[in-house]
Amino acid sequence: MQKSVQLFERAQQHIPGGVNSPVRAFKAVGGTPLFIEKADGPYLFDADGKRYIDYVQSWGPMVLGHNHPAIRQAVLEAVEKGLSFGAPTEAEVLMAELVSQLVPSMEMVRMVNSGTEATMSAIRLARGYTGRDKILKFEGCYHGHADALLVKAGSGALTLGVPSSPGIPADFAQHTLTVEYNNLDSVRQAFAEVGEQIACIIVEPVAGNMNCIPPVEGFLQGLREICDQYGSILILDEVMTGFRVALGGAQAHYGITPDLTCLGKVIGGGMPVGAFGGKAEIMRHIAPTGPVYQAGTLSGNPVAMAAGLASLTAIQQAGLYQQLSHNTEQLAKGFKAIADKHGIPMSINYAGSMFGLFFTDVERVTNYQQAINCNQAQFNHFYHAMLTEGVYLAPASYEAGFVSAAHDQVIIEQTLAAADIVLARL
Ligand code: PMP
Question: Where on the chain is N6-(pyridoxal phosphate)lysine found, per UniProt (predicted)?
């Protein structure tokens, strides 16, 4: 830990909080963040040379595990040809074709550089297409840090949205309605009042930013019906779930067809990439075919496309998603069985290769209020003790965990053995 401590001290001199994205700073769990030297398969290696089994996987994209040889090779070959051209390439055509094939609702695709850009652009398109200003999102869902999306609920479902960060004018937030996840009645109520003004619903089809909360039966289908009834656009934010919950994303897993889909980090295999896409009729409203402006100097970057294409090709191997789901289920159920054995109240959620542990006696956690009412202190203890045992979980109790193809039976068993030691002492 010595080197991480030193690096963190230095980092804080010239980088706000010592990090380039807030959750990395370990504020929620306390202590010093680990500075990472390298990663391979299921492992992270910190600056002091200690190895950890990693369940963050760069916050999701490493479906195949870290430093996958096919992706690394593709990147090296692309680099040989130049880093950026600012002109179209064949790789972008291949990427759009592949995405449309794997996620058929994405008839047309526009590449961007992050999940934030994807959601921000999809919302602008939904507003431009419908000519409406309001959008509806869910409490506890995160869609990146665009102004309209950093908004929390007011005091009731239909009060004006309130900015959740200084720097966002209240005038921007007032168009964002925020209602409870997994509660169709709250959505119906909002639409009954102002449905004709709502351009879109944006939703994480499995919420991964309030720990891991899958949709309850009928929730996503209900959203689809409400959007159809009111002529609103349904945007699935699959930045986390795309190519992760299933090969075709959560939309394939739950059998739901959105109008627009946002993809992020997973599509780049670890490079800074995002994308949005959907019905051709809607997507044609984007510039240059349509009037809704959206652009990016580095969008469709050749190195990023090479990494993404290699990743999306490798994840099509037969049986991969069954194996991921099976291992994730085993891991989550294993945590729960060990917690039960030691008399610690715990609830688990999982979907595909996403999972969440909640220190709570609520049997099934389905919304934000339940998620934030979990025992944070217990989680923080658990977190640091697992770190000592060589297991790296997300450094906050409201983040989902990710299993990769490199997390085999042995790795799962080693993780559960660590949890047994830690939970026995908790
Ligand atoms: N949407 C979801 C569902 C996310 O989980 C995230 C990031 N974790 C984003 C959007 C924003 O993506 P990015 O951090 O790449 O801007």
Answer: 265
Topology at the third CATH level for domain 69-314: Aspartate Aminotransferase; domain 2 (3.40.640)
Give the model's confidence band at 154: pLDDT under 50 very low, under 70 low, under 90 confident, else very high. low
Structural domain spans, the chain: 2-64+318-425, 69-314
d(Cα 82, Cα 386) in Å, to the nearest integer?
A: 42
Query: Is 237 annotated in the active site?
Result: yes
Give pTM, 2 decimals: 0.97
Positions of E strands within 336-387: 347-351, 354-358
**Ramachandran category for residue 39: left, alpha or beta (phi over 0 → left; psi -120 to 50 → alpha):** beta
DSSP for 319-339 reads THHHHHHHHHHHHHHHHHHHH
CA of 235 to the centre of ligand 1 (A): 14
Q: What is the CB-side half-sphere exposure of residue 5 using CA atoms within 13 A? A: 3
63's tokens? 């479906």
Q: Which two tokens stand for residue 419?
A: 């949890």
| Nearest atom (ligand 1) to Cα of 204 | 3
3-state secondary structure of 107: coil
CATH fold, domain 2-64+318-425, is Aspartate Aminotransferase, domain 1 (3.90.1150)
- Which of these is catalytic: 142, 321, 392, 398? 142
Q: Which residues line ligand 1 (CB under 6 A)?
A: 59, 114-116, 119, 142-144, 204, 208-209, 237, 239-240, 264-265, 274
- Sign of the Cα torsion 264, 146, 398, 139 reads negative
Is 181 an annotated catalytic residue? no
Q: Which residue is catalytic, options 265, 321, 383, 398?
A: 265
pLDDT digits (tens, 9 = 90+) for 236-276: 999 999 999 999 999 999 999 999 999 999 999 999 999 99
